[in-house]
Amino acid sequence: LVHLANPIPISSQVPRGKEHSPASQEPDLSRVNCDPRHTTRIMISKLANNYEDLQSSLSSIKIHRDVIDDVIAQMLTSSSYDEIIDLSKRAAISRVDIHALLGDYKEMIGAIERAIEDVAEENQAEEQTHYESMMASIDGASSLPLRELALASLILKQEKKYDVALDTATTRASMLARFTAKPSVDPPSDAPSGVPLSTPAPTGAPVAPSQNPLASSSDTQPPATHNTESKPPDDVASTSQRPLLVLPPIKLETFDGSDLTLWPAFKYQLDQLILNRSDLNEVERAFYVRSSLKGTALNLVHSIPTKENFLAKIIHRLEHEYDRRGLTQAKLLQSLLSVRSKSSRLEDQLVAVRAMINIAYSIDKDSGVDGLITQQMIAEHIHKRHIKLIWSKRPKTMMLALELIEDDLRSELELATVVDAFSSPFNPHSHASTSVASGSVSKSKSEASACDTCTASPQTSLSGPPCAFCGTHAYTGKCTQSFSIKEKKEILTRKSLCHSCFSNQHKTNDCVKCCSYCSGKHHTSLCDKPITQSTEDVATQSEVRLTVAEDLTNSSHVATTVHFNTVVQPTQSDTRLFTVAVALTNPRAHTATKAHVLLDHGSQLSLISRDLVNRLELTPIYQSELYLSGFGSSPDVAIYDIVQLDVMTNHGPHRIEAVVKEGDSILPPIHTHSLSKSDLQVAKDIIAFVPYHFTETVAINTDLLIGIGDTLALLDKSKSTKLPSGYRLIVSSIGALVVG
Questions:
Q1: Which intervals carry biased composition (Polar residues) (predicted)?
Q2: Are residues 475 and 587 in the same domain?
Q3: Which of 179, 252, 320, 693 is most exposed, with the fewest beta carbons within 10 Å of its own?
Q4: Spatial separation of the C-alpha atoms in residues 65 and 538, rounded to whole Å
Q5: What is residue 18's DSSP assignment?
């Protein structure tokens, strides 16, 4: 602490300029304040050296920023690619150094913050105030902000400016090269007729540099005259007239280490685009290698600095972890054997075989997949009818076998499309529908209810006209293509078809058919209203069955019958189901989202919507051939994806397996009303947070239906409280539910 006799500022006591200094005189002691209680305190921080280091780091950053600014200014006036390449090298070195200094700067700030915490309590507040004042200031020497975020933002703006300047300079150099390029053939001269334009050089004589290169390219070329049009060869002319195109920059693919099979292709990319480039120094190559890594692969080499002589250590660390050829080939074979066609439709078979071809490109020849037995096994995964094709053709490799199946499927699909294009969908004498399904499942006539007979007639379910929406099967009411209700109505209107029975013989208002859900003048598949049903109908609602075929290849297979409850929304009933919003995560990609879940005690399997699968970026762990019925669709045999996901509970993640069901939701919207005030008061006394659907009337779209096994596990040790209205408040590991 410095005690000053005069409380006025120091600058006013001691003027620094000589022009302000009067003649030397004795100080005026009459103004001296001798009272020690009125003193001025000047803060001398114990962390002064740390702040000096910050300012020194900012000065270094300023030097590199000036280099980049100079490069930007020179780029805008450069006229050749060589100049741009030299300038970009200088800028690349400065950009790498700036990022390294910025990392050191961040560590310095962290050290200062930790040092302030270790200061004595009586001085800690002053040190914190001084630190905040410093961070809010601008360094006078470098004119850069001391706050880290502001400094990083300034650096980012300069990098964007550099990128724009580089693109502009490259485009400008390309345009200048096009305008200044000299033609390879000189224009014809006004020489007299019969005089050659160029005299051939004698045999063995050197050609002068100024000679036309085309004149000496062939000794047998006849001399051009004034009356003869001189034309260069086609290949030379096309080369001289071809514009110089500026190719877009190559974007490096990233590698996160989650899929070992992607390492060989990624390593080849590193070798060709980064490691083998002589114009990059070792630090630049190390920087580019690290910038192409993320996830676990980046964490593997995160502690290795990007300095000289450290590039080999980074590559060795990555190769030691991921360059395992035997395991990579095993995973590729496992992926190849797990691919199956989702259904017997030609489109699904084509998707499956193309996925197999993509995997087969990475499998080595000595892996043993080229055998005839393995080829037939893979062909059966697409469709068993391809076994005969493989047996008759006997291709030498797996790739040839897959390409053979692909060509066969493509030909069938093209033929089916042509036949369908020239076939009238309403001609009773036309041949059967060109269905792309190679095997259809017969439908029972007793499927539809009395009012749901608007699906044409039972006799036309399989042999009648093709679907009015997609034309790929013979049952319009059960179309499985991804058409919205609005799109279906537009198609029917455009084709002048009845919206209730899809006939072209009468109008919709004249049709006697109706919707079985709302009794409206439209088909049940076009109903966009919630499914309503009387309370009596709910009590007598028949169960819907889900049958899983264990072995569909045998004629007398034994199927496992799986039951799940049909969810309907009564008109008068106030029934509340086991619905709750929970957090769901992808155990592989570490993505998360929140979705509505229905706990179903009557279901033996869990179902998940395709929309939720896409949101979580889930990938199938295997596929299973299932016989599904219910949810307003006809029974059909198809291959379904099986995925794994985690349900977040109070005790940690709970992993479940679910069957992927196409669509945005599993069930129609479930309507729930708000609880009474007395129920809400009891709920607030028991749980800290009251969900919004307890206080509002909402329509819940179910994204995940959890079967009985996982339902019992999630509701284990839950507490139940009876509410005044008679409902039950269940506090479980995944949240609070009101049921009853």
A1: 209-227
A2: no
A3: 179
A4: 74
A5: G
Structure tokens at 631: 């949810």
Number of domains in the chain: 5
Residues 497 and 564 in one domain: no
The reply to whether 685 and 732 lie within a common domain is yes
In terms of average pLDDT, the best of 188-192, 403-407, 527-531, 602-606 is 403-407
The alpha carbon torsion through 74, 80, 82, 88 (nearest 10 deg) reads 40
Q: Which of 118, 116, 136 is nearest to 126 (CA)?
A: 116
Q: Between these two residues, 259 and 423, which has the higher pLDDT value?
A: 259
As a whole number of angstroms, the distance between CA 472 and CA 435 comes to 5
Helices (H), 386-431: 386-393, 398-421
For 650, residues 6+ apart whose C-beta sits below 8 A from its C-beta are 733, 734
Q: Is 219 in contact with 200 (CB distance < 8 Å)? A: yes
Question: Can you give the residue range of the structural domain that contains 370?
Answer: 328-421
The strand pairing partners of 645, in sequence order, are 656
Q: Is the pLDDT of residue 221 over 70?
A: no
Beta strand residue intervals within 495-591, DSSP E: 532-533, 544-548, 560-564, 569-570, 579-585
Q: Cα dihedral sign for 236, 237, 240, 245? A: negative
The amino acid occupying position 580 is: V
Number of alpha carbons in the 13 Å side-chain half-sphere of residue 531: 17
Please choose, from the candidates 605, 600, 643, the residue with its C-alpha nearest in 3D space to the C-alpha of residue 623: 643
pLDDT for 214 beyond 60: no
pLDDT digit string, tens, across residues 454-509: 333 333 333 445 677 776 665 566 565 657 777 788 888 888 888 888 887 788 88
Rounded to a whole number, what is the largest CA-CA distance in the chain? Answer: 126
Mean pLDDT for the stretch of residues 298-327: 85
Q: Does 712 lie in the same domain as 572?
A: yes
CA distance 343 to 348: 6
Q: Are 397 and 368 in contact (CB under 8 A)?
A: no
Q: What is the mean pLDDT of residues 539-552?
A: 36
Helical ranges in 528-676 per DSSP H: 535-539, 610-616
What gap in Å lies between CA 707 and CA 700, rounded to an integer?
18
Question: What is the value of pTM for the model shown?
Answer: 0.33
Instruction: Give the 3-state secondary structure of 5-32.
Output: CCCCCHHHHCCCCHHHCCCCCCCCHHHC
Residues 6+ apart with CB under 8 A from 502: 456, 468, 476, 477, 492, 523
pLDDT band at 404 (very low <50, low <70, confident <90, very high): very high
Q: What are phi and psi of 302, to 5 degrees?
A: -65, -35
Distance CA(243)–CA(177), nearest Å, equals 9
What is residue 650's DSSP assignment?
Answer: T
Q: What angle do CA 102, 105, 109 make, to 5 degrees?
A: 140
Return the axis-axis angle of helices 48-75 and 81-118, rounded to nearest 10°.
160
Do residue 573 and residue 713 come from a single domain? yes
